[in-house]
Fold:
Amino acid sequence: MQNGHVGNAIGGKLDDYFDQRELPMYKDKPYNYSTSGKAKPIYERWRLIGSVLLALFTVGYFLGFFSAGATRLKKTDGGKSTWSWGGKGLSTDWDARREKVKGVFIESWDGYQQYAWGHDIYHPLSKEGEQMSDEGKGMGWIIVDALDTLMIMNLTSRLSHAREWISTSLDYDQDINVNTFETTIRMMGGLLSAHYISNEYPMLAQLSDDDKGAPGEDLYLEKATDLADRLMGAFETDSGIPDASVNLRTSKGIVSHADAGASSTAEAASLQLEFKYLAYLTGEKNYWEKAEKVIEVIDNNGMEDGLLPIFVSPITGTFRGTNIRLGSRGDSYYEYLIKQYLQTAGEEPLYQEMWNQSLVGVRKHLITYSDPGHFTILAERPDGLDGKISPKMDHLVCFMPGTIALGVTGGVTIEEAKKAGKWGEKEESDMKLAIELTKTCWGMYKVMATGLAPEITHFKIKDPAHMESDGILASADITDKAKDEFVIKHNDNHNLQRPETVESLFYMWRITGNPMYREWGWEMFQSFIKYTKADADGGYTSLAHANEIPPILRDNMESFWLAETLKYFYLLFSPSDFLPLDSVVINTEAHIFPRFKLARDLHTGWERKTRDEAGHIVETPKTAPGRTIKVEESTTTILADEQRSKEGHIGLT
Ligand code: DMJ
Structure:
């Protein structure tokens, strides 16, 4: 699409708009879209009237006639700008915004398709592809990761192309070492999600997974199972904690070459949704047992307040180091606690108990406030819980607000939770924390010259730090002044097209119903369009420097740009009944799985050891089966994906 992104000029915006409306911009059409070519006069007339009205509105918006939403820039004292939220403004055409997201996905996908098809890595500036391993022939890194987004966006012709590649070219029998976690969440997760969506929402996926009689029946599921069987060797360690990497041909686990052989806690403990869903689909209990064993081994460390160091040994099953954080290497351990509880429809309460314990631990040890704006920070404890707090947040931590909200209601709206009598002080307080943390994550975008968040943000805080237990502080509005307390170090100002904040906006919108979250998302999306476009047909790329204009581009499109970031934008602007949150559970790579009830011989195969209020194991003999002490107070935590990547193995983020 020529100039197919939101530029500054009004003229450009209108051109874009009319381009999109009048030209057959996308070959892909909704499955049930009429292709008769017969004119539909009334519809066409309304479409024209709609176009004119929208054009007038767009002009008005940019001339400042309307307060078109919560995030309009308001000029205040001394001409300084203030970002404010709260207003609703005129009704917005969310369908049109959603189509814009689809347009950006198409540009990104088509760039990849044209210049790097079948490669794991895509460089949109040099317009080249690369495999993650020189010996490898491609793992489908981008194609498989994007499959379910193609379905959700109903991009049928592109989906057919992807499915054909998977059917004819994708072969996991390769003598290459891959990262266990990344391969599980992206490849297995992508295939399983494609299987689920194509069966559950056949109108979205023109080609079902079950091509009766055709070669490659249940293609996605078969590929997922083949891959899972190769990954399973990673779990064959002394402790049951999986090795960081695995050879796909031999299925032999490979200990991490870095970190004294330790695995990342988050990586070891974020494989469960995928292997459990596969066990459910295939009836193979082994997948279930290996995955859940990891959580048992981790929990048997009896960490204080459910907060964990970011490394764990696959030999002993015990932690390495003292670094506790919910950023890189820690993040999705926590995410998968609550999501495991939701995946099996609330039938495994020990995961909710662990989540609650960890959340209390987060509040006790990690929540502090910036100074003077009192923005809520989810900080780190590099030297353990008795060490000094480090007021730093990886962008990765921004999954947390949405996940907290999800944990509060299980996916239904606040209103519905209240009606169902599932609302009390804890829910109220957790939701407030989610709201404040979302604002902080949004602030990370607002303080940047491009409007795109850095990889890592530091904050100015008081010394000693004001903790939540010293009293909850109300945050100020995010204004230009916030730049003084959101501290962006030179090495941290890159933007890797990450999804976590829009992921949280999506959950917050669905759960609170506050349109402010959609408006924030729209602003973020416009910044991505404006500043991350590679060139006319390359697609979109990540940024080496997001805090200067023009930004410095990096020559890489992350696969999660297609799998997660654009999917969450699309869902944020979609109607709320599209993929209802209380019937699905979304993995850490935004792949969508169903919730299900424990069935057959799939059940929780372990019990938590008795522990004291702080979460330490109490060495008393167990008495009755199922005996666990419910500990109300406790939490857990988890290095930068940058470090995770390229450590000599394939598939590190
Ligand atoms: C993704 O691969 C997953 O979301 C993972 O959990 C964290 N890192 C990236 C996105 O930032």
